[in-house]
Design goal:
45% helix; 3-stranded antiparallel beta sheet; 2 domains; alpha+beta; globular; 285 residues; 15% strand; 6-stranded antiparallel beta sheet
């Protein structure tokens, strides 16, 4: 009798352990699969330099860099602008200043009292970035200056040395987003929760670059471009993917697929086109 009771206790113990192990496995499985735990981020790598930004910061970095491409400015200009905006606003379009500049606003913390424009103008990222470049190009030697020197000549900051700490990030994102480093930008994002609109992507792209030759084909925007411009547009799309519900970008035989999160992979899309696909309204990709 005692032996039977012992066997029953052992069986109950083993069953309890098995159920506990199964529960732990199930919990770990669902935790690993849960998208709520995906750490959303965008990275850029160019040579031995790299940087990491949150998706909203990356979208602003793409806007700033696209303006440089549109104006025909060198990647150095975009590097200076990115390092400046990172120091001034953390690459976010903030509507407040600080104790040193209470009327400072926007991506570059420009001040109406210093002649940068009205508050409404400065809060428009496109206006703000072009105002920054307008001031930068008036410095004849800006391309040969250190990042912090060029930025300080434009900003006249109370902390002139602070811009240098963002140089690696600025160079990495500027090189990739200008198309000088193909496949340099990679974003890890959760799945889009709502359908996108390829026509809206076309409008955003036109505002960023101007004069872009593109056609809407259902959920895909097809852009005719080659070389660095093609890669600039493609990586602008990746950096802007979160808010625009972009799920896939194809360019020059490579593809970035949002659900996979595996970076740029080989694809069959020929050179000469950038294909930007948004999530369809029916929930497909």
């Amino acid at each position: 009798m005692a032996r039977r009771r012992g066997l029953r206790r052992l069986a109950v113990l083993l069953l309890t352990l098995a159920l506990a192990a199964g529960g732990i496995y199930t919990a770990v499985f669902f935790v690993q699969r849960s998208e709520t735990l995906v750490s959303e981020r965008c990275t850029a790598t160019a040579g031995n330099r790299s940087g990491e930004l949150a998706p909203d910061q990356a979208a602003n970095a793409a806007l700033i860099t696209a303006a440089a491409v549109r104006r025909g400015l060198p990647p150095r200009a975009a590097t200076i602008a990115l390092a400046t905006a990172m120091q001034e606003s953390k690459l976010r379009n903030i509507g407040h200043g600080d104790q040193a500049g209470p009327d400072s606003r926007g991506l570059f913390q420009q001040r109406p009292s210093q002649g940068w424009g009205t508050e409404a103008q400065i809060m428009d990222p496109y206006y703000a970035v072009n105002a920054f470049y307008d001031a930068l190009v008036k410095i004849p030697e800006y391309e040969s200056l250190d990042i912090t020197e060029a930025a300080q000549l434009v900003q006249k900051s109370a902390y002139p040395k602070a811009y240098a700490q963002h140089e690696d990030m600025g160079r990495a994102f500027a090189s990739a987003l200008t198309g000088q480093t193909p496949a340099g930008v990679q974003c890890t994002l959760r799945s889009a929760v709502a359908g996108g609109d390829s026509a809206s992507v076309a409008a955003e792209l036109e505002q960023a670059y101007g004069g872009v030759d593109s056609q809407v084909d259902g959920a895909t925007l097809v852009v005719d471009a080659t070389g660095p411009v093609a890669w600039s547009v493609a990586q602008w799309a990746v950096a802007s993917a979160k808010d625009l519900a972009i799920t896939q970008v194809d360019v020059a035989g490579r593809t970035w697929n949002r659900p996979n999160g595996d970076g740029w992979q080989v694809s069959g899309v020929p050179d000469g086109q950038v294909r930007i696909t948004v999530r369809a309204d029916d929930g497909g990709s």
